[in-house]
């Protein structure tokens, strides 16, 4: 583990020269692309990534994904404030997103939560998710891409 806990974020499948330099320098890296299946997860791990962004079906199989990643010393990243149909055209409540009330449930499975949004909303999202840990309004106000109105206050588990 490096002293400053940094990693380089790169586009998937960079040139051979960049890949060789990263691998020989032993600098931790991860790809910007999101992973929604086991084949891609395994391919990225074989390339030596330090972490992976998961979404879609993999996000609903976090216990197995965590075991697999832990075995290979790879951390799991996720965007909690994205209704992930944006990337795979899923619809309805079956899409993966994380409410502020549920963040603690994911502690054992997700290592790094990052917000997908403009800089001016980063601090309010951080306060909502990690300080207040609740949202009593329409989730569309904090979760990008949610197609339907749902008041977080009425979802069980609050």
Describe this structure in words.
This protein is α/β, with parallel strands linked by helices and 158 residues long. The protein has one domain. It is 30% helix and 11% strand. The protein is built from 5 helices and 6 strands; from the N terminus they run βαββαβαβαβα. The protein has helices at residues 16-25, 38-47, 62-71, 85-88, 119-132; strands at residues 8-10, 29-31, 34-35, 51-54, 75-78, 112-113. The strands form 2 sheets. It has a 4-stranded parallel β-sheet. It has a two-stranded parallel ribbon with strand order 1-2. It is elongated. The mean pLDDT is 82.
Bin the helical content. 25-40%
Q: Biggest β-sheet: count, sense, barrel?
A: 4 strands, parallel
Number of strands: 6
Order of helices and strands: EHEEHEHEHEH
Rg estimate, integer Å: 17 Å
Low-confidence stretches: none
Indicate the structural class.
Answer: alpha/beta
* Morphology call: elongated
Quote the distance from N terminus to C terminus.
36 Å
Number of helices: 5
Percent strand equals 5-15%
Q: What spatial order of strands do you see in the largest sheet?
A: 3-4-5-6
Tell me the domain tally: 1
Mean pLDDT reading? 82
What brief labels describe this structure?
158 residues, alpha/beta, four-stranded parallel beta sheet, 5 helices, 6 strands
């Amino acid at each position: 583990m490096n002293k400053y806990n940094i990693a380089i974020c790169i586009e998937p499948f960079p040139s051979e020269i960049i890949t060789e330099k990263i691998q020989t320098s032993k600098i931790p890296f991860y790809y910007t692309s999101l992973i929604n299946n086991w084949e891609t997860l395994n391919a990225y791990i074989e390339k030596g990534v330090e972490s992976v962004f998961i979404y879609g079906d993999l996000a609903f199989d976090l216990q197995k994904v965590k075991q697999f990643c832990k075995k290979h010393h790879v951390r799991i990243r996720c965007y909690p404030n994205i209704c992930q149909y944006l990337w795979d055209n899923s619809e309805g409540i079956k899409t993966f997103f994380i409410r502020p009330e549920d963040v603690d449930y994911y502690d054992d499975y997700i290592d790094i939560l990052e917000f997908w949004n403009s800089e001016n909303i980063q601090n309010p999202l951080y306060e909502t998710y990690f300080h207040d840990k609740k949202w009593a309004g329409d989730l569309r106000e904090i979760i990008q891409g949610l197609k339907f109105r749902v008041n977080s206050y009425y979802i069980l588990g609050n």
